[in-house]
Amino acid sequence: MPTPKPDTTTDIILIRHGETAWNRELRFQGHADVPLNDMGHEQARRIGLRLAQETAVQHVISSDLLRAQQTAAPGASQLSLPIATTASLREQFFGIAEGMRSDEIQALHPRAWEEWLEFREDHAMPEGETPREFHARIIAALGTIASAHRGQHLIVVTHGGVLDMVWRTAHGLSLSGPRRSEIPNAGFNRIRIADPAAPEAIEIVEWADTRHLADLPPQPTYDQTRHLQRKD
């Protein structure tokens, strides 16, 4: 009888960080190292309790930005696992727009704002990262993670834009156009990558599950389409 081949599928529980003050104010965060606010810490505590049930998890990996590490900490503590950090899982870099609300960008950089509203895959805020560059960075990061953890179960804590790239890739969607997937803070998402050599072949198993947050106040909603409605 032939020896069965080992399963190389990497099972990833993908978590967006908890809420920050800048989320509440709808500011562009990008690479700015913003901590969780009180609500974000409560969300992190709750996702940590949920992740404690995932006893098959072998590793916890986080973006190196503070808001992601603070979100990862309760779950890692529950599972008695260290947190490995990487800059490759950071949010998209928004250049001059980081720290600003949409109205502030519109007032100070009107041309950059109008161009951003076209949501083109090769357009970036001045000094920032285009969606195409961002997507390439994230898919490469997932490939590196899947290759290093073949057949393992992981928790990966990262950012909303990263989850948007995962969603678009899994559904074969364009990198152009506004975000269309639901990506709540501290939501529970599960994906699988069967072949580390093809990290773009992502299977979504669960998405945007927030049962553990059900009795908390509504989250601030980052809806890119609202800008287009105001423009019209």
Structural description of this entry:
The protein has 232 residues and is α/β, with parallel strands linked by helices. It has one domain (10-212, 222-231): Phosphoglycerate mutase-like (Rossmann fold), CATH 3.40.50. Helices cover 35% and strands 16% of the residues. It contains eight helices and six strands, in the order E-H-H-E-H-E-H-H-H-E-H-E-E-H. The chain has helices at 21-24, 38-51, 66-79, 102-108, 110-116, 131-148, 160-170, 225-231; strands spanning 10-16, 59-63, 83-86, 153-158, 188-193, 202-209. A six-stranded mixed sheet has the order 3-2-4-1-5-6, with helices on both faces. Helix 2 (38-51) packs parallel to helix 3 and helix 4 crosses helix 5 (110-116). It starts with 9 loop residues before the first strand and ends with a helix.
Features:
alpha/beta, 232 residues, Rossmann fold, six-stranded mixed sheet, 8 helices
In the CATH classification, which architecture applies? 3-Layer(aba) Sandwich
- Give the CATH superfamily: Phosphoglycerate mutase-like
Shape: globular
Average the pLDDT over all residues and give the rounded result: 94
Q: Determine the strand fraction and express it as a percent band.
A: 15-25%
Topology as a string of helices (H) and strands (E): EHHEHEHHHEHEEH
Strand order of the largest sheet: 3-2-4-1-5-6
Classify the secondary structure makeup into a structural class. alpha/beta
Question: How many strand elements?
Answer: 6
Radius of gyration: 18 Å
Write the layout of secondary structure elements.
Elements: E1 10-16, H1 21-24, H2 38-51, E2 59-63, H3 66-79, E3 83-86, H4 102-108, H5 110-116, H6 131-148, E4 153-158, H7 160-170, E5 188-193, E6 202-209, H8 225-231
Parallel strand pairs: 1-4, 2-3, 2-4
Antiparallel strand pairs: 1-5, 5-6
Helix pairs in contact: 2-3, 4-5
